[in-house]
């Protein structure tokens, strides 16, 4: 306040009428004007702090700018940490860079190469069929009807998979006709008037599944994301699965197929 008042004093004309002695109402008037300057300074200082993920007041605006979705299940500090990780991402393709990027976003996962250690020439390629399914979805042993999900099965823990992860290449949606005349369909009773060959009620949209190449020379284009020790699984919250997969597809090199060794709970 004092600094802005002195500035005003220097701008006033010279002469006794403009002398701002403590008892004059004119001084009180100009002292009141200095509040505007203090508010402006505080506003500008706060705008500067908006440049930093840990102090910004416009967290939601920055999340929109960086396309960071589904923040409702995160604490404010987790949101700020995620924003900081995205803000600091400078680009890179090394396993350590990608691993740090995922961990900075709040995912406790590790990136593993396509070869078996030790890293000696010639390298021994990992067979992806031993670690992942081709399906986009992990196969859980606790699903209804799964033969391993019998009562008393010692390994039937919630979220546990059949020991295989899943393949993530891209998330492309394909459309299939929903036919009325499929075997077992309730609409296919004898004499059903609507049961004409080829008739369908609409379309079913599914994510495309990719086939693991049979050629071992292609297995070097796989990378694995999971627990700290390969092929252990990492555990992540189910509500963040889409966000996690989006990060994988966004930052991992486009020529790699990703084996995801993760249980979502």
Number of domains: 4
Strand order of the largest sheet: 1-8-10-5-4
Sequence stretches where pLDDT stays below 50 over 5 or more residues? 141-159
Biggest sheet layout: 5 strands, mixed
Task: Report how far the terminal alpha carbons are from each other.
Answer: 56 Å
Q: Whole-number radius of gyration? A: 31 Å
Q: What best-fitting shape do the alpha-carbon axes yield? A: elongated
Helicity range: 25-40%
- Count every beta strand, where a strand is a DSSP E run of 2 or more residues: 11
Overall pLDDT score: 81
The ordered string of helix (H) and strand (E) elements is HHHHHEEEEEEEEEHEE
* Helix-and-strand structural type: alpha/beta
Give the structure's gist in a few sentences.
This protein has 265 residues and is α/β, with parallel strands linked by helices. Helices cover 29% and strands 16% of the residues.
SSE blueprint:
Elements: H1 2-11, H2 25-49, H3 59-65, H4 76-88, H5 95-104, E1 110-112, E2 115-116, E3 124-125, E4 132-133, E5 165-168, E6 173-179, E7 200-207, E8 222-226, E9 234-236, H6 241-251, E10 257-260, E11 262-264
Parallel strand pairs: 4-5, 8-10, 9-11
Antiparallel strand pairs: 1-8, 2-3, 5-10, 6-7
Helix pairs in contact: 1-2
